[in-house]
User: What shape does this take?
Amino acid sequence: MFYIISIKKSPTKANFATYTRHSEVKIAIIDSMTLKELQHSKIYGADNGGTPLIVLHGLFGMADNWGSFGRSFGEKRQVHLLDLRNHGRSFHSEDMSVEVMVEDLLAYITSIGAEKVLLLGHSLGGKVAMQFAIDHPGKIEKLIIADIAPKAYPPHHEDIFDALSAVDITTLENRKDVQVKIEHYLSDPGVIQFLLKNVYIREDRKLDWRFNLDVLKNKYTEFITVGVKSGVFNGPTLFLPGEKSRYILPEDKIKIREQFPNAVFKTIPNAGHWVQAENPQAFDAFVAEFLDQ
Assistant: This one.
């Protein structure tokens, strides 16, 4: 069972959250005197105590990609699967940077009343998680980073953006039609199926993408080709590189340990960049071991 979180205005200065069973989250949080949109989330194990575990997905991803993980870990702890802004069912915005996503996360943590959280981020979500840990170290009990380093990466999603831009999704009839069109531009079945999970039917019955394609494409350099800003997080940190991935290279560990001096590394065998999907047994085992220590 999972719960969606709904935020209501408090009659006092403090924010408060109520767990409800809505099928969708209604986004609103009073943060000081400002009305701020709140990220969509799926919450597993809402009745469990202890420090909540928050999970941040990567570029083009969404909370739904982590459903199996949430169900498993939600058996003994509270797990919050978040949609980053301009992804999944979260709000769309012209602002798209690591900094504003860190602010989104802080607002969410404030809304659920958590003093500290366990934070797990993959790829883009990992970059946001690292920056959050450096900016707000007192909010993090433990940090888990899946297959991403704090360095700046060169552009490497051009083929996906070109393919998505070439497909006029609103004119197509169903997901199969979208797949056929994308296959003209992309050849990796895994990538294609990953993208197709974002296809949905709008209220006007036309197909569309869950993610905000235009903003992700136009603001790409503001959140992908930038590194984590200088600073240090001294808390317990687990890095999970994929054995077949090139996102974390051996030489990157020097820089990682400069900013995360208590980092440990556990390589996910037989996995590329999508470590949690390509070897979920090893991924879950490493995460569980780290959290239980």
